Amino acid sequence: MNVFILNRQRARKINRRRLKKNAAALLAKLEIEKAELSICLVAAPEMTRLNETFLKHKGSTDVIAFDYSDKTVGADIRRILNIKPATQKPRGTRCVISHKNIHGEIFICVDEAILQARKFGTSWQSEVIRYLVHGVLHLVGFDDSGAGARRKMKLEENRRLRELSRRFPLSKL
Predict the structure, then answer these.
(1) Is-contact 145 110, C-beta < 8 A?
(2) Where in the chain are the domains?
(3) What does the pLDDT read at residue 100?
(4) Is 47 left (phi over 0), alpha (psi -120 to 50) or beta?
(5) pLDDT in tens, 100-141
(6) How many angstroms separate the CA atoms of 71 and 117, rounded?
(7) What are phi and psi of 64, to 5 degrees?
(8) According to CATH, what is the number of the domain 2-172?
(9) I need a surface site. Which of 87, 128, 138, 172 has the fewest CB within 10 A?
(10) Residues 20, 61, 145: CA angle, nearest 5 degrees
(11) Counts for the chain of helices (H) and strands (E), in that order
(12) What is the pLDDT of residues 3-36, one digit of tens each?
């Protein structure tokens, strides 16, 4: 597994080694077999440019994930077997499906983490890890475009965040 951390913001000091350990633990828990993952910590102006350029949304946002993997083969197999990516395993089949590989980039806005932490009464470090989890969940196939899918993703996000917070002191990020 290759996890790269780039820190291009100055709002808060980040322990990149600890962030990388959190990412590696999350990938292991999700049973990711291979990963090429870049985590870019950015400030609001850079996130605004990314959000407006690539997603055509106005202003900044908390996290954006770019998936660079070729999911065509996995998607075809999942469609044939009628299973969802990363949420179900095929029943009654011995076929091995390898949709546990990710290749992508996650941009995390630390300025947004600070704002959201104040709003929700959490720490900015916890928000950064939440955004990491959210981005990785997108890369393994979770979607939050509809209300039902958003609820499922939020439940999984909260579960994974709790697991990480029990294992790592998030305040030391």
Answers:
(1) no
(2) 2-172
(3) 79
(4) alpha
(5) 789 999 999 999 999 999 999 999 999 999 999 999 999 999
(6) 34
(7) -135, 130
(8) 3.40.390.30
(9) 172
(10) 95
(11) 6, 4
(12) 999 999 999 999 999 999 999 999 999 999 999 9
